[in-house]
Amino acid sequence: MSNIAVLTSGGDSPGMNAAIRAVVRYGIEKGFTVYGVERGFEGLIEGSFRIMKRRDVGDILQRGGTILRTARSQRFKTPEGKVRAAQNLETFQIDTLIVIGGEGSMSGALELYKNHGSKVICLPGTIDNDLGYTDTTIGFDTAVNTVLDAITRIRDTSSAHDRTTVIEVMGRRSGDIALYSGLSGGAEYVLVPEVESDFNDLCRKIIEGKNNRRQHSVIIKAEGYPMDSNELAEALAERTGKDVRLVVLSYLQRGGSPSFRDRMLATECGMKAIALVEEGVSNRAIGTVGGIIKDFDLEEALSIEPIFNQGLYESIGILSK
């Protein structure tokens, strides 16, 4: 009987618990002893391992966050930290480490594999949808739906007060949350780090809307867009003469019960991870392409740059006229 371990790392995302549940229960079914590592790579360094039973993952499918907790480990960025983490995997006789997280977490797992020979398999757990090898990531769908709900509520107040609202959403390097929520939420304008926007065009759109008796405007801004949100709101108010308010959704986007899509993606990725362990395959990144769960060489997967959907972005300008 082999030992495997699972951890969640970096920012939490809805669906991580569903992935943990699948790894634990499918792993036990296949005869593995499954360890949970608490607080990500920091817990890996400290040896925070515990054996997971079926009941440990009961009633977590619908919960956001992660029962294993997560952390951003500064110690793991050091050579000494990585050595300690690899030694603890040896101490607990872990055959394969399953990492649920984003690009930073996957890069950390790759270093364990390349420099210390640790077997790793990675699942794409991040709301930002910024991994190029997979069509979507665990947590992205829920985050977009959370933003959509906020847009709907904010529109009611914006309309009642005849104001323009700038809504800041997460996405330092990727504008996908802003793009998809803005398009499906009927935003008048979307600002993302991938596209250099014309401030005059934005102001003109707000003024033209006012002239055409539009009661309100909603602007979605990804946090990675290169202009401070407060400065943007102030500049828009000064230029357009409108009452402009800023709403920063922040960590609200990370929480909440995962959507159907995220539960399914997380569960299928977790099952695929155990299947790969059973086959003796490691150094893989699991994702979805065209609705099919696939696995990729981890280093190659991380080298694939995400492609921003320029066509969808341009459609916002047409649909919001």
Q: What is the structural class?
A: alpha/beta
Strands of the widest sheet, in order across it, are 3-2-1-4-5-10-11
Q: How large is the radius of gyration?
A: 22 Å
- What's the SSE pattern? EHEHEHEHEHEHEHEHEHEEHH
User: What is the tally of beta strands?
Assistant: 11
Tally the helices.
11
Q: Summarize the main sheet.
A: 7 strands, mixed
Strand content: 15-25%
> In terms of per-residue confidence, which ranges show pLDDT below 50 for 5 or more consecutive residues?
none
Mean pLDDT: 95
Helix content: 40-55%
Dominant shape: elongated
N- and C-termini, Cα separation: 62 Å
How does this structure look, described?
This protein is of the alpha/beta class and 321 residues long. The protein is built from eleven helices and eleven strands. It has helices at 16-29, 40-46, 79-91, 103-116, 140-161, 176-184, 199-211, 229-240, 260-279, 298-303, 310-319; strands spanning 3-8, 33-37, 49-51, 94-101, 120-124, 164-169, 189-191, 217-222, 244-248, 284-289, 292-297. The strands form two sheets. Strands 3-2-1-4-5-10-11 form a seven-stranded mixed sheet, with helices on both faces. A four-stranded parallel sheet has the order 7-8-6-9, sandwiched between helices. Strand 10 and strand 11 (292-297) form a beta hairpin. Helix 1 (16-29) runs parallel beside helix 9 and helix 5 crosses helix 6 (176-184). It is elongated and about 70 Å long. The mean pLDDT is 95.
